[in-house]
Amino acid sequence: MFGLFRRPPPIRDTAALANFIDRQAAFVVQKGIYEYARARAGHYAKVLFHESEFQQAVEQARWRAYPLGLAMVAELVHGMLRPHAGDRHGTVHAALVSLALDVFDRYPVPAALGDDGWSQARRELKQQLARIDLHPAKLAKDIPEPFARAYFSLLPVHQKLRASEFPTIRNYLRVTMVNTHDELSRRMDAAAMVAMLSAENFEQTGRSGR
Questions:
Q1: What is the pLDDT of residues 173-210, one digit of tens each?
Q2: Which residues form the domain of 96?
């Protein structure tokens, strides 16, 4: 019981950062999917959540949305590290891209997507991560903007029933990313993490060059 009052542990290494990115990416996309579906179903939520067709739709939605969550959280991390990176910002960006793709690769191919769908999702994620370094860092609340419409389209509720509710979903993503930023600010020493990512990227580059 007393564990409920403990603060989350500090993020002191890249493994802890990878776990944070993974958990937050899953949280932001799955919470939105389940809570929105529950709100739309109202009193019929329990019945809906036990229907196999709906379960299949949720399974596909959450795996399609997971790379979007990874892209958003990775961009958030990048924006927090960038002011501390100086002339190492390219190195830090490359290390963060590698870290986020490693997180993606933790998971076997979801049956709901298949090999082709999962491979396509990875390619799109890699492209999204590559673009992070092409523009100034965004405020946390603005990061979901390029992803919100794609996420909204994945919700397992008929389009006619959710046609006017895109602003609600976009605001949910914005608020969640602000909360994620606040948590990461409390738990991570950004300057120390820049040093770790730079060192790891140097080691990986050195090994690949031998």
A1: 999 999 999 999 999 999 999 999 998 764 565 444 44
A2: 11-204
Q: How many domains does the chain have?
A: 1
* CB-CB contact of 101 with 126 (8 Å): yes
**6 within some domain:** no
How far is C-alpha 101 from the geometric centre of its chain's CA atoms? 11
Residue whose token pair is 């403990």: 6
Instruction: Say if 1 falls within a structural domain.
Output: no
Q: Is 44 inside a domain boundary?
A: yes
Within a domain: residue 15? Answer: yes
pTM for this entry? 0.88
Which three-class secondary structure state does DSSP give residue 109?
Answer: coil
- Distance separating alpha carbons of residues 175 and 160, to the nearest angstrom: 25
Place of tokens 């959450």: 62
Residues with Cβ within 8 Å of 180's Cβ and at least 6 positions away in sequence, in order, are: 24, 28, 73, 76, 140
Interaxial angle between packed helices 166-187 and 52-85, expressed in degrees from 0 to 180 and rounded to the nearest 10: 50
The pair phi, psi for residue 11, each rounded to 5°, is: -95, 100
Distances (CA, A) of 9 to 2, 3, 62, 165: 15, 12, 27, 36
The two tokens of residue 154 are 């994945």
